[in-house]
Fold these 2 entries.
Entry 1:
Amino acid sequence: MLIRVEIPIDAPGIDALLRRSFGGEGEARLVHDLREDGMLTLGVVATDDEGQVIGYAAFSPVAVDGEERQWVGMAPVAVDENYRGQGIARQLVYEGLDSLNEFGYAAVVTLGEPELYGRLGFERAALYDLRCRWPDTENAFQVHRLADEAFDGVSGLVEYHEHFNRL
Ligand SMILES: CC(C)(COP(=O)(O)OP(=O)(O)OC[C@H]1O[C@@H](n2cnc3c(N)ncnc32)[C@H](O)[C@@H]1OP(=O)(O)O)[C@@H](O)C(=O)NCCC(=O)NCCS
């Protein structure tokens, strides 16, 4: 198994993984559209020994309170059913966070299981007065600080790219 940054040849494998992981085409189409529009900040893949994509995490820019602040949203995250429970999601997320940190990004937000992402170092975004536009997400919307000063004077609505509104 290999964890690495996405390259163009991975696109069909990522598409297929997202379709079977989420049982529909929404997430696959989202990643396709973000990539087409140059809005995929980073994609991290896990591949098996044959080079097939078995895991994926995507990162794209978000605005905070209407401003670009070098923050990104992590979504979607998926691991092939046959490979779950082996720490692959953890490795994908950590690889993504490490790379974004090196590139100088300030923070990463995500929407999902607090139990899962809490184990990966995310905290409730509401603790920092940060929210997203989807209702009843106070516990599910989470943030991971990369830069020490990321939260200084920053709060309010975190907005993903408009492609997320079609999910
Ligand atoms: C969610 C998903 C990505 C997890 O992948 P995975 O490779 O099995 O996760 P990992 O093995 O790296 O687990 C990391 C940690 O989170 C925990 N965890 C994994 N899935 C979890 C879940 N659904 N709920 C709560 N905790 C979870 C694990 O126990 C592990 O913690 P530990 O190391 O302290 O034991 C995978 O189940 C999946 O693709 N699901 C379908 C798509 C999906 O729902 N994506 C998430 C959208 S928010």
Note: The two ends are 30 Å apart (CA to CA).
Entry 2:
Amino acid sequence: MSTLAVERLTTNVGAKVLDVDPTRLATDPDLADQVAEALETHSVLLFPELNADDETLVEFCRKLGKLINFSHLPPETAEVMEISFDPSNPNAEYFASNCFWHIDGLLDEIAPKTSMLTARVTSAEGGETEFASTYAAYDALSDEEKERFADLRVVHTFEAIQRLTYPNPTPEQLTEWASRSVREHPLVWEHDSGRRSLVLGATASHIAGMDIEEGRALLADLQARTTAPEQVCQHSWTNGDTVLWDNTGLVHRVRDFDRNKPRTMHRSTVAGQEKIK
Ligand SMILES: [Fe+2]
């Protein structure tokens, strides 16, 4: 059986895959299992200048699990979401919040497991994607903190993340945000694997049953520790790069870039199977 050659990018998160090209992606029957295992270890896998087309990428993602169908898209392209600030993009308004640390899909019943992002048009400056491990963040807590946080629950809202981009919302925005689901998750996720991670990010509004400001201060402190510069894996995009990440063990964000210039990323997402508990 072939193996996956990787090189670590930082101590806790990220590895570069050294020996995969589009042909191997399409034909190696063992690759999906090797990639899933490497993702569990490294949380982020970079395939530098893979230059695979959407069809090949989607076919490979299907081997990792059930793909999410982005229902607003035509059926033939529904498994590939285009992320850009082009005014014709129906989601452009909400992509603005991607620059804050977050976990995808925390407002859904089950958060996605794996996302695959491919650079089609890169920005000349900025636009890097950053990742920080929420497993490492949990592991770094003191024993006293682990005990104290064990039963805390965090309320996640669409409003919390949107307010970071739109601090003075219109009544229409407030109404639209309020129509979105609200989810309460434990602060500490005990995964089926037995590993534990923190559940944090820009959707976190407050801690249930705790004074609002006290809870927000705790969340801010935990997020700052999780995403301290030495904990972050930053990827600077080249056209044709593909990155896979384990959405269940990370927070991620995009760094600022000129949104008036073209930048296009294609994303496919593998559905999660595990509720946060
Ligand atoms: Fe995201």
Note: Residues 159 and 176 are 9 Å apart (CA to CA).
